[in-house]
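**Backbone shape codes:**
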Amino acid sequence: MNTEEELRQIEALLERLGAEPRQATVMAKQLVKRADQWVEERGLSRVEAMKQLLELVVSGRSGETPPGIGAQNGSDSD
């Protein structure tokens, strides 16, 4: 899959989740960029990195907080 096709597919998914078209375009580009970073930083495959990011988007859209996300430094206890 080429980058343009991947972007179009991610944009379509984000629009189905409720994003406005312009917002979906920006978000899709950010997700692709972050997936590339995770490949470098975490040693994930490109597919696994994108899968994890899209799962975060979907869970966030439904109001869920995925495990490991949230107050990790104890700043909530103020």
